[in-house]
Amino acid sequence: MALLSASWLFGLSYYHDAIWLAWAMLVAAGAGLLIGFNIRKPTAVEAGVAAVMLLPAIDLAPWPYRSAPLLIFVGLVLGIVAIPRRWPKAVASALIVAGVILMAQSLAILGYEYVTARSHELIWPFPSLLYAISRLLGFRAALDGTNLGLYSPRAVHLFGATWELLLDPATLCFLVGGI
């Protein structure tokens, strides 16, 4: 789950330009670690219909959002093909689960981008919540409007109370993927 969640940081140009090799490696490793995850196998007809229904999403979605329906599609097709080994069914299940997780995470990322597009500053009462969390964690902190001050022995470090400080995209994806 953590690898699939972190893959969005490399696949989207959210903080920096996309690094496609790192993104592909994280998605492949995250899907590979899901091998052995047991799901109900769809029948051949169900898998075929679902695979055909995914084709428009694969065609229309931009990268890296396209990876979720593509993984589900490959998993469904691999589950339909009659290969007399056990590994195709295990890989098919892993690809379907990874695709579903990435699909939920992609919707969460789009929502996150929508909420934070105009301003990254937290709206009231969230700065106070961030201050309370920092105090509960044992930090010496102060709140000045939307700035959070954290004290160290020699200086006060001011942080802007932003959405990224409260809930960064990777953590959001991890929570949504876990749900």
Describe the structure.
- The protein is mainly α.
- It has two domains: 128 residues, no CATH class; 36 residues, no CATH class.
- The chain is built from eight helices and three strands, in the order ααααααβββαα.
- The chain has a three-stranded antiparallel beta sheet, covered by helices on one side.
- A hairpin with a 2-residue loop joins strand 1 and strand 2.
- Helix 5 crosses helix 8.
- The longest helix has 30 residues.
- The mean pLDDT is 91.
List keywords for this structure.
single chain; 179 residues; mainly alpha; 2 domains; three-stranded antiparallel sheet; 8 helices; 61% helix; elongated
Secondary-structure map:
Layout: H1 2-11, H2 20-32, H3 44-60, H4 67-80, H5 87-116, H6 126-136, E1 141-144, E2 147-151, E3 156-160, H7 163-166, H8 169-178
Antiparallel strand pairs: 1-2, 2-3
Helix pairs in contact: 1-2, 1-8, 2-5, 3-4, 4-5, 5-8
Let me know the number of strands.
3
Mean pLDDT: 91
Radius of gyration: 21 Å
The H-and-E topology, N to C, reads as: HHHHHHEEEHH
Q: Which consecutive residue ranges, at least 5 long each, have pLDDT under 50?
A: none
How far apart the termini lie comes to: 11 Å
Helix coverage percent? 55-70%
TL;DR of this structure?
The protein has 179 residues and is mostly helical. The chain has helices at residues 2-11, 20-32, 44-60, 67-80, 87-116, 126-136, 163-166, 169-178, and strands spanning 141-144, 147-151, 156-160.
